[in-house]
Amino acid sequence: MEKPIVILGGGFAGIEAAIKSKQYGYDVVVVSDRDYLFIYPVSIWIPVKKKNFNDVSIPLEKLAKKHGFELVIDQVKKIDHENNKVILGNSELEYSYLFIALGMSKITAPGQEHTHSICGHPEESITIRDILDKLVKQGKGNISVGFGGNPKDPTATAVRGGPAFELLFNISHYLKKKGIRKNFRLNFFAPMAEPGKRMGEKPLKKLGLFFEHYKVSTYVGKKIKRFEEDKVVFEDDSSIESDLTIFIPGGKGHPLFEESGLPVNAAGFIRINELTRVEGHPNIYAIGDAAAILGHPWAAKQGHIAEVMAKTAAFNVHQEISFKGKRKSYWEHLNIICMMDSGDGAAYIKRERSRETIIPLPIIGHWLKKGWGFYYKNSKLKRMPRIPGM
Ligand SMILES: Cc1cc2nc3c(=O)[nH]c(=O)nc-3n(C[C@H](O)[C@H](O)[C@H](O)COP(=O)(O)OP(=O)(O)OC[C@H]3O[C@@H](n4cnc5c(N)ncnc54)[C@H](O)[C@@H]3O)c2cc1C
User: Dihedrals φ, ψ of 212, to 5°?
Assistant: First the structure.
């Protein structure tokens, strides 16, 4: 092949696709507007000071050296699929195959500038840490954490609720350790009647026990009207006082997808088939949060699914180039797996199409999740061997 495989995005999906494609022996160029991979699942510990920003980041330059791919730090401006090229801020790149792994964007709510998200720009985790720090020094306050959906995403595969729960329980534990928990009011809010239901019925029931244990007041089933500097206002004009509001909006597709004329679903995510190939575009694949998970309304966009999609895409492209018949489907590997951390333990949650599991893991669960963070970073940097299937 004269032209390289170009991968847009240096997150979970993009880097896994780059590693696998290099292992198959291809020239690979990764484009990212950040010069580091952000390990979102363990970023929940930045606000409570269990991890610092660098612990949770992997410099892409180091990954590029270890795995031998070319790295371009630049912003993708347009995907010109008719001419097999992408337009970047400072240059253009031609490709033989294109993997789109640009993650997701978020919808906006009125007054959202008064909120902070643990699922947005990585730097926001530091802002949340600093505001929490100020409240700790003050010795009292109201903290509200919530999430919302995207009305245009009827299957809600892009709702990201887990980190909201994790952050709430971690903040409760953090304040308790400082001996000031009783001076704080912790609130959880979400517009849906049963937030967390995506994890399954059993985990949903257990969530209530978590709220009780960590003394969190809940405000669910009411639409959010707007955010104010020190308030969350609901549709019925009731409100909660809030010195720190952490809000994870519903997800939507990157505006670039529709602008570039790629097929997207109602929420703007790229439509792919089970091989992760973009509908109607034989040499373009979309992986990770950027892609619409079609036909599996119970599923969710997660990091391990992003990696499964990346491996599937790299394998299928390799098979096509090698004129081999066998193809793989990412659908076989769909599940929801979550180690829901609370600072002093965790609950292991697994949801498959027709089975749900929840195992409370006091203390050890927290260390298992920390161990995963260590493993993810060090195995990607080839400092330790990779466990098959992880
Ligand atoms: C707080 C939090 C906790 C989570 N916890 C878990 C968990 O416990 N388990 C789990 O499985 N999943 C978890 N997830 C979900 C998981 O992190 C995501 O599913 C995963 O990051 C998706 O990977 P991705 O590569 O598709 O997107 P991302 O990781 O978002 O990467 C997108 C990449 O695209 C780049 N990019 C975006 N726009 C442009 C542009 N215009 N030009 C160039 N580059 C661009 C970005 O810089 C980034 O490199 C969590 C997510 C969050 C936010």
Answer: -65, -50
